[in-house]
Amino acid sequence: MKNKLYHLFAHVVNIILLGAVGFLGLALFVNISEPDPSVPSPSPIDMGIWILLLSMWGFSYWYQFKNRQWTVLLFANLLFIVAVTIVILVLMPLLYDLCYF
Transmembrane segments in this chain: where (predicted)? Predict the structure, then answer.
């Protein structure tokens, strides 16, 4: 029973995280305002960031099911959320400043 509860909780949490990454990808690739001519839509930076986030999520998901421990589930998801925040708030603006003066 404990193993089934872990699998259910891990799947639900990871589907929510995957939905957030998917929504972020949709927000990166769809521009509803007037497009800025200096930044192409979708840009290679957006694609790279989205692929990075998907691969980080995939590794986190794989690692959670490899170990099957509640602490790993908790810390892997918290680490993923922190990494996504750092990538979006630090890495993404830095790459835009370096590539699009």
Answer: 12-32, 44-63, 70-96
